Structures are given as C-alpha cells and as structure tokens.
Amino acid sequence: MPEATKPRRLTPKGQATKNRIIEAATALIAQRGVAGTGIEDVRAAAGVSGSQLYHYFASKQALIRAVITRQADSALDPGLPRITALDSFEALRAWADAAIERQRENGCRGGCDLGTLAGELSGTDEESRTDLANGFLRWKDLILNGLRAMRDRDELRADADLDELAFALLSAHQGGTLLSQTVLDVQPLEASMNATLAYIRSFATDQRQPVR
C-alpha cells in the first residue's frame, strides 16, 4: 500500500485517533524496541481496527517515522526536560538537572527517545536515519539559539564557538543518557552534563559566579 505523498487534513476525531496510535506505538517501542513491536501489537494497544490504522499509516515504517517526529517534538513538551529558551547559565543548569532527575525517576530504564531509536534504526533505515538526524539538529539549534542570546548579552565571550558548544551539550546529554541506561546508574549522565556545563561556563565573561 503506497504512502500518501501529501498529509491528510484530519478532523479533530481523526487527529485524536492518529495521536492514540502514535502514543501506543511509542509506549510499546519503549518496552520492546522497534524490532519487537509489530503493527498488530500497536493496533491492539491503540484499540483501533486494522483499516483505521492503515488509514493513517500505510506501513510500519511510516508509523515509526511518526514516532520519531513525536519524540523530536518532545523537547517542546512542558512535561519533559526542555531545551527551549536555554539562554542563561541558570536555564542550562535547570535543564541538565531535569534530564538527570528524569533518568533517576525512571531507574535509567531506557525509553523511546531519539537516542534509543537512533541506536536501533540509523544503520538499517536511511529514511529513519534522516528523520533522526533532523530531530537531533533541531535540538542542537534550540541550544544554539539560547547560547547565541547569551553571547548577544555579553554573558559569553565573543570568541566562543557556539556551534561547538551546542553540539557538546547535546552529545553530553545523549551519550550520558545512553551510558546511564546501560549501566543503570545516573552518574554517567551527571558527569557528562556537569563537565560540559563547566566547559561552557569557562567562556563566561564574568567568572566570579561559582560553577555548580
């Protein structure tokens, strides 16, 4: 069944059904991984018929790509650690603390985030790899915008390489999360975030404030 080339205009009820399918797929992938999650599993969990599911998603790949988009958008979800408006050292610290606390609350037990999806999909599905890359780059740009605002306010030195700092912070978050989920200990994420925030702080124009 071919995938639609243009997005369908959905009614509120249709959008709610589509969202329910994506949420069910996201929850199952968090438990079983992409390979262990079948279309029939998602259909049953979402409480929809097969025809309903295929009305919105022509294939498992289409559904997985929707999950990737949802997880990329999760940075904007007020219930999750945010990477928007990271335009102060306090905001950077608060975001790092929220990310660490989320892993602590979850017992470092994985989930369905971009890093987990990338580990399973990036080497086998080029379209999914592209979607994942775009999601990571969106997150990096959100961090970059905050750092740029700090430099514009003369809180960061003019010679700071903001692109490098943004990638460093995103890499610390993703790499630290992966290692914490592997060893089931939040310390790797704490260490990577603390070290990267200290590095960013080294470019502060005012070095009198202590690093926490």
Largest sheet data: none
Principal-axis shape: elongated
Mean pLDDT: 87
Distance between the termini: 54 Å
Question: What percent strand?
Answer: under 5%
Bin the helical content. Answer: 55-70%
Number of strands: 0
Put simply, the count of helices is 9
Structural class: mainly alpha
Pick out the low-confidence regions.
1-5
Computed over alpha carbons, the radius of gyration is 19 Å
- H/E series, N to C? HHHHHHHHH
Task: Describe the structure using short key phrases.
single chain; 212 residues
Write the layout of secondary structure elements.
Elements: H1 12-32, H2 39-46, H3 50-56, H4 60-73, H5 89-105, H6 114-121, H7 126-152, H8 162-183, H9 187-201
Helix pairs in contact: 1-2, 1-4, 4-7, 5-8, 5-9, 6-7, 7-8, 8-9
Task: Give structural notes.
With 212 residues, this protein is an all-alpha fold. Helices cover 66% and strands 0% of the residues. It is built from nine helices and no strands. It has helices spanning 12-32, 39-46, 50-56, 60-73, 89-105, 114-121, 126-152, 162-183, 187-201. α1 packs across α4 (60-73), α4 (60-73) runs parallel beside α7 and α6 packs antiparallel against α7. It is elongated and about 60 Å long. The termini are far apart. Mean pLDDT is 87; it is low at 1-5.
Compact description:
The protein is mostly helical.
